[in-house]
Structures are given as structure tokens and as C-alpha cells.
Amino acid sequence: MSTTTQLTQDLLAGVPEGRRVQYVRDWLKDFDKEVSAKREMIAQFRQWLEQLSDESITRSYQQHYNPTYLNLSSVFGEELPFEKIHSLTIDCIKTKLWDECEFFFRLSELLDSIKSVRNEKEFTTDQSLLRLKGWDSGLLRSLLSHGKGLIICSFRFGAIRYVPIELALLGFPILQVVNKPAFEAMQAAFASLSAHGDDKTSFPTEGPKLRLLKTV
Q: Which of 39, 53, 45, 46 lies closest to 12 in space, CA to CA?
């Protein structure tokens, strides 16, 4: 057994199965932790999540299983058998749990990239920093040129989490309305930048473009 393998196993050792998702999520939200350590954590978490049994999901995540199953049944109930709807429900829940944790890991990587440069002029929007494809900055500027702003509405799970961050990286001031846990996580992210020496206020003319994102 390699040293790396031993380390990743130790990161979740002793954490009850039903509390592991929350434990990992909170661990990744600590933006003072080294990204290298978070890379170990997210790898171990993904391995555990992929191996998590259907029985464990239905036992520990009923608050997700029941509404997801009912929603899928209402759409596919006449086309798919019970077993297939159950399988889709499990896949949806695992994807949701993964998306939440992966987002905070990717945010940590982004913050680490910002902290590694000496000034804003050195920090350009590297395409590798963007998780989503197909951005049309010209179209966005055209819509905003009417002077009435732009409202984007979506569910708060999945890839939507990257939209406000990437719009800020592209240079667009963003006001993001989220629930309390998401707000607290973003405040912690900005606090880690401030601790690194960036004390710019929201919507700055200088400083990391991520500061164009204001979360309320």
C-alpha cells in the first residue's frame, strides 16, 4: 500500500457513513486548507461515493430519495419499470452529492490560482479555469447594453454553481442570491483572499476578478 493511498483512507477514517457527505463538504469549505490535501480528500470521497450501495442511499438520504423518486415517477412512470426509476433516482442523488463537493474543491483551486500571482495584471482568465463551455461575452454585453441588467434564474444544484463565478472571471459584475449555507461558504472564500492580502471591496476596479461577484 502506497503512502498516498494510506493518506486518503485516513481522511475519512472514523467518520460515520451517514455523516460523510456533510463532513467532506465542510472540510472542503475550509479555504485555509492546502489544495493538495483537498485533492486527496476529493479523490477518496469520489471512490467512496461510487461504491455507496443503493441500500445506503435509501437509508441515509431519504430526504433526497423520496422527492426525487416521485418526480421521476411522475415523468417516466408509464414508460419505465420501478427498477429503472429507482436506479435513476440513485444516480441523481449521487450526482447531486458529488456536484456539491466538487464545486467547493474547484473553488479552492481557483482561489489558490488567484493567490499565486503577485498582481491582477498577471492573472488572466485561463480557459482551464472555466468549467463551462460556450460563453459568448459579446452577446452578454449586448444584452447588458440596454441598461436594465440581466437576471439569470435556475436551480441551485449542479453546473449552475459555476455560472456566477465564471461570469465574474469574464469581467461581469454579478449579484448572486443564495441560501445561508452557500452565502457563508462564499464569505469564507472571500475572507481567505483578504487574509492573503486582498482587502478590496465588492465590485472593485482593481483586484482579482472573482471580487466582481457579490453574494447575498
A: 45
SS3 state of residue 151: coil
Average pLDDT over residues 9-34: 88
Phi–psi pair at 162, nearest 5 degrees: -85, -20
Q: How confident is the model at residue 207 (pLDDT cuts 50, 70, 90)?
A: very low
Beta bridge partners of 175: 214
d(CA 95, CA 49): 9
Enter the C-alpha cell of residue 198: 486582498
Which residue would you say has higher pLDDT here, 96 or 117?
Answer: 96
SS3 61: coil
- Cell 441598461 identifies what position? 147
How far is residue 21 CA from its own chain's centroid? 13
